[in-house]
Design a protein that fits this description.
Layout lengths: L29 H15 L15 H23 L3 E4 L2 E9 L2 E6 L4 E3 L6 H4 L3 E3 L5 H4 L2 H10 L6 E4 L4 H15 L6 E4 L6 E4 L2 E7 L7 E12 L8 H9 L5 E11 L14 H5 L2 E5 L9 H6 L5 H6 L8 E5 L1 E2 L4 H9 L3 H4 L2 E3 L10
Parallel strand pairs: 2-14, 4-5, 5-6, 6-7, 11-12, 12-13, 13-15
Antiparallel strand pairs: 1-2, 2-3, 3-4, 8-9, 9-10, 10-11
Protein name: Metallo-beta-lactamase domain-containing protein
InterPro entries: Metallo-B-lactamas, RibonucZ/Hydroxyglut_hydro
GO molecular function, one term: 3'-tRNA processing endoribonuclease activity
Length: 365
């Protein structure tokens, strides 16, 4: 498949509604659960509250048991939330892990795509299309393993998209692995440049957009392709439209609807670039927020080619997305730090923001 261009496509006008992700109240701490569990055990053996073998006045045994069981259930719900592998927003299941400097790989299985491949996780292997944003190892280091594993499972060679400036180096890298491992790493490597469009299937295309990281980088927008009857034919009846279509007349416009956008690592500059409007109006924007608090300021984030959460708040008026999935948090943060920071976003943002927290430590692990 070759990169193609879809020209003269009309601009899109999308309706916008806010996505309100489910939120859970802060669960009891593990220590609280263990304390109540200990009480439960003590009562059960006749050594705790409600002495006399746990038959104290006022149903002491049942009361403590109920409290312990309720707290255990709350703990299990919290733990299940912590161990969740992905998120679901606007009808898209998004799975992945993105820890700043360690590993990034995010998949959208319904689109058959993966973005970046830091360590070659198994959940990405089934995706036929892989989009690489830049050449830092935590975003491209797993590429040979991803290709090799697909070969091991007899899957067809994947299509891997890279910024044109790194294509030759990626080819050299794969050649080195072929020589060392004596394995034929079969892949279709595509240098997809800004302004080019690649057809994934007849109703789905991809385009890169410019991002601003410490090294050359680009993000990607995945579009659904739809055909809409041209306005001048809107008054015609069905049989008239059919006759025109059979005569070979072009009666529809091709319209691209931005569905999912992925930035990879970038400074906030991408937000203010008019060329990136589609990324900011995609149904779902997956973007980074490496730093969250005052311990690391905006200048430090920018110096290293990253975004600070405060910049997302500062530029909130530009986000027309229905949902925003934040990724690539620094490993210095815990899962609770991330949740707390996101909860402090202004209401216009917090109602549509979800954090991808797989890989971060929590009190419930």
């Amino acid at each position: 498949m070759a990169a193609t261009s879809l020209l003269s496509l009309p601009s899109l006008r999308l309706t916008h509604r806010l996505l309100v992700p489910a939120s859970s109240s802060a669960p009891a701490s593990r220590s609280q659960f263990q304390t109540l569990a200990a009480k439960k055990a003590a009562v059960a053996t006749g050594t705790g509250e409600g002495g006399g073998g746990g038959r104290g006045a006022g149903g002491g045994l049942l009361s403590v048991l109920d409290r312990a069981m309720a707290d255990e259930e709350e703990y299990r719900r919290a733990r299940a939330q912590v161990q969740r592998k992905g998120v679901e927003v606007e009808g898209y299941a998004i799975e992945g892990v993105s820890v700043g400097g360690h590993e990034t790989c995010v998949t959208v299985p319904s689109l058959n795509v993966a973005f970046d491949i830091g360590r070659g996780p198994l959940f990405a292997v089934s995706q036929d299309y892989l989009f690489i944003t830049h050449a830092h190892l935590d975003h491209i280091g797993g590429l040979p393993m991803y290709i090799a594993t697909r070969g091991l499972y007899n899957l067809k060679p994947p299509v891997v998209f890279v910024p044109p400036c790194i294509k030759d180096d990626v080819e050299d890298l794969l050649q080195i692995h072929r020589r060392m491992s004596q394995v034929d790493l079969k892949v279709e490597l595509v240098a997809l440049d800004l302004g080019e469009t690649f057809e994934i299937r007849n109703d789905l295309v991809a385009r890169p957009f410019e991002t601003h990281h410490a090294i050359p980088s680009q993000g990607y927008v995945i579009y659904s392709v739809r055909r809409k009857l041209k306005k001048q034919y809107a008054h015609l009846k069905g049989n008239q439209i059919m006759k025109m279509k059979q005569s070979g007349a072009e009666i529809t416009d091709t319209i691209l609807y931005p569905e999912v956008a992925f930035t990879g690592d970038t400074k906030s500059d991408f937000i203010l670039d008019p060329q990136n409007a589609d990324a900011l109006r995609a149904k779902v924007l997956i973007t980074e927020a490496t730093f969250l608090d005052d311990q690391i300021d905006v200048d430090h984030a920018r110096e290293h080619g990253h975004m600070h959460l405060s910049e997302i708040m500062e530029h909130s008026q530009w986000f027309r997305n229905k949902a925003i999935v934040l990724t690539h948090f620094s490993n210095r943060y815990s899962l609770e730090d991330i949740r707390q920071a996101v909860s402090k976003l202004q209401s216009k943002l917090s109602s549509k923001v979800v954090a991808l927290t797989e890989g971060f430590k929590s009190d419930y692990r």
